[in-house]
Structures are given as C-alpha cells and as structure tokens.
Amino acid sequence: MKNNSLLIKNANIYTGGISKKLLKGYEIYIEDGRISKIFKSGTKKINVKKIINADNKIVMPGFINIHMHFYSTFATGLNKINPSNNFVDVLNNLWWKLDKKLDSKAIYYSTLAALINAVKHGTTTIIDHHSSPFSIRGSLFEIEKAVTRCGLRCSLCYEVSDRDGDKRAEEGIKENYEFIKYVKNKNSNFIKALFGLHASFTLTDKTLAIASDIGNSLDTGFHIHCAEDVIDQKDSIRKYSMRVVERLNKFMITGDKSIFAHCVHLNEKEKDIIRMTSTAVAINPQSNANNAVGISDIKNFAKENILYGIGTDAMTVNMMEELRAALWLSHLKNKNPNPTLCFNDVSKMIENNVIIANRYFKGIGEIKEGNFADIIIIDYYPCTPLRENNFSGHLIFGISRQRVDTTIVNGNVLMENKEIKFIDEKEVGEKSIKISKKIWDTF
Predict the structure, then answer these.
(1) What would you measure as the largest C-alpha separation in the chain, in angstroms?
(2) CA angle 217, 163, 247 (to 5 degrees)
(3) Strand runs (DSSP E) across 207-296, as ranges?
(4) Three-state secondary structure call for residue 166
(5) Is 136 in a helix, a strand, or coil?
(6) How far apart, in whole angstroms, are the C-alpha atoms of residue 283 and residue 295?
(7) For residue 443, which of 71, 111, 93, 72 has the smallest C-alpha distance?
(8) Which stretches of 57-175 are assigned E, i.e. beta strand?
C-alpha cells in the first residue's frame, strides 16, 4: 500500500475527452497523482490509503476554463461604478480602475478566493489573463504562489497594453518574459505560461513587434482579447487599414499555441486565418451578454472547423453554468430554439477545452489510465436513462443543477463532502474582505 494511493469505488464514470465513454459500476485506482487502473467493481482487491465511495454520484474529469481573470475577483458586490453605456465605458469605469488599485497582496488574495471557488465548482485547470498596471513586476509570481498553495493547474500571463504608457508596456513585456523563462526552467505539470496581450486597440505596432519577437523566440503562444467589441475592429481599420486578426497575423501572434478570447466580430477572411493557423478561440458567452457586445457564432465556428472552447472571462468559475448560457444564447443568436440546431456544437466546447489545454498540459481532461488524476465527483441520481449518447443533455439540464461533492487534482483531494481541505476558507475570506474594502474605499 502506497501512502499516496486512492481508490474511488462504486463509480459511474463519464470519461470525457476523446473517448466519451460511460462506465457504470467501476473503480478508479489512483497512484502517484495518476490514474493507474480502471476496473469493474469487485474484480480486483487493492490496498490503498484512502477510499472514496461514489455511490449515487457521477465521476468525471475536472472542468477546464480557457479564459479567466483572477484579478477581477474583488469586483463582486462593488456598486460605486459610474453608469456605462458601451463596452469602452465598462473598461474605463470598472476594469481599468480596479486593476490600477491592485498591489501584491490584493493580487494574491483575489487569486486565492477565485481558486477556492473554482474547486467548489469542479474546475481544476484554468488559463488566466492578468492585469495590474501599478503592480506589474512580480505579479505573475504572486499568482503562482496562490496557485501552488491551492494545488490546481494554471497557465498565467500578463496583459501587455499601451493604455498606461510606454513604461508600463515595457514592464508588462518584462514580466511575461521573466515568468515564461522561469516556467520553462521549472518544467512543472501545474504551472504554464503564455505571453499576454490586452487587445489590438490598446497595442501599438511597436509594442506588438517587440512582444512578437520575444514570445516567438521563447516558443510560446499568446493570449489576447480579439474583436470582443466592434470598437476593436473600427480602431484597427482606422489606424492600420486592416482588420484585427489580419493585424495579429501580420505580427505572428496567431498559431497553435495561441488563444484568441471572444472573437465576436470576425469576418470570413479572419476566420480563415484563425483556422489555417490553428489558433484557438475562447468563447465567453455570459461576459459578452453582460457587456452587450454581441454573441459569438458557435455554429459557424463549428462549420468552419475552427478550434473553439469555452472560457468565463471571470463572470463565473462554474463551467456548467457557462455552458448552459452558451446554449441559450446560441438559440437567441440563431433565433431558433431547435435543440438539434446547435446543441452538439455548444456541448463540444467542453471536449475542445481538453484539446486546447493539452497543448500546454499533457494528460488532463479525460479519465483514462496513465492520465493525471484530475477528477470531480458530483451528486447526481438521474431520473431518466443516462447513456453515452445523451450525457451532454444530462450535463446541461441535470448535473449542472447539482453540487460538486469532491474535487481531486493530481490525486490530491482538495474538496470532499463539499468541504475545502487544502486551506482555511474562512481566514482567506476575512482577509479578502479587508483588502477589497480598502480598494472599494478608493473608487
């Protein structure tokens, strides 16, 4: 018996990933952070340190969020915000005020609070996009400290922008460079790095060229907001006589390691570039609806064979909630409630997130022997037949309404019986309230 061994018994397993199998009445033996064996209940006897009974529950891979902002955590409940009538107003009145007020402690605790919430909702891998213009240097290392303390998998970057002047753009470039070098040398299965950029409309050609040279020399991808609002396109056409994706492609920001978030306002030529360069698209349905910028055309992305996944843009850490919103908004976009119209294209985003995340982290997102044991267990006793060919329907309309009971990352039990195990949640909450109150008082 190994000290780091774990057995999940009486499991109804949805394997996810490529296989997408439903295994009823199975057991999962976990050893050294990986799934060692999957076998029918009662066919093997294994001595283990810990056993989890998954009776009347669904066992499935942890969720992956491919576009998140930890830094926005302390906006929850903030009501001292000037009215906003468009997307740029939202940035000026909220996000570009909040990010300037973050110091290292606020960065650390906003990350901790977000990660605790992620564990509660079964999200085990997150690709984050950070901003703190008055506390840039060392900010990604502060986030990494919080991630390490919590035990999740995260890819981090700093969003370089010219909106606060040359000095801060240079500092953002340096922060990305130093953190990417650090991560590559560390070679961890928990922490990865991309080169962060804000958006085309806040980046000069000079800054884009420098970022491109450094990022490509480091053989890393880029994480950028792309055509989230029509203002991004108008700015690019007015200043550079080309559309956003054309401009980013010109500077070699596209590619199979890069993530373009949102992509609400693209034409066919831009979609062709994204497809041909194998750039991943992160769709954020609730954020786009909240900011009234539009609805991504998921059905068209699927038709065009673009690799598109789902993020939350920090609106939530609950990927099931985001998936539900994606379906309703797709119906609205197409003005058609027919479930066959876009149901498969929407539900495919969870599967595509696995493909995208495995560009950085290898062996996650699918319950199979040899993969990392990133597993969640959800209370669910179905009242209708549950099969492989209708699991997505159960996920969106049934499982999503239930609570995550257990969250496991790398074989480590982070939450069990709905109780956080890795940190004093109350202490983090109390410190976060004090820090956020100071920030709010200066708004």
Answers:
(1) 69
(2) 50
(3) 222-226, 259-262, 280-283
(4) helix
(5) coil
(6) 9
(7) 93
(8) 57-61, 63-68, 123-128, 153-156
Task: With CA atoms as reference, report the closest residue to 369 among 61, 38, 41.
Answer: 38
Picking from 251, 249, 283, 277, the residue whose alpha carbon sits closest to that of residue 265 is 283
Q: How far is CA 278 from the centre of its chain?
A: 19
Domains and CATH numbers, the chain: 5-61+365-420 (2.30.40.10), 63-357 (3.20.20.140)
* 421: its two tokens: 């195990």
Which DSSP state fits 138? Answer: T
CA separation for the pair 207, 224 (Å, rounded): 14
Cα dihedral 175→177→182→185 (10° resolution): 180
The label of the residue with tokens 């499982």 reads 399
Structural tokens at position 163:
């909106």
- pLDDT, one tens digit for every residue, the chain (443 residues): 455 799 999 999 999 999 999 999 999 999 999 999 999 998 998 989 899 999 999 999 999 999 999 999 999 999 989 999 999 999 999 999 999 999 999 999 999 999 999 999 999 999 999 999 999 999 999 999 999 999 999 999 999 999 999 999 999 999 999 999 999 999 999 999 999 999 999 999 999 999 999 999 999 999 999 999 999 999 999 999 999 999 999 999 999 999 999 999 999 999 999 999 999 999 999 999 999 999 999 999 999 999 999 999 999 999 999 999 999 999 999 999 887 778 999 999 999 999 999 999 999 999 999 999 999 999 999 999 999 999 999 999 999 999 999 999 999 999 999 999 999 999 999 999 999 999 999 99
47: left (phi over 0), alpha (psi -120 to 50) or beta: beta
First-to-last CA distance in the chain? 56
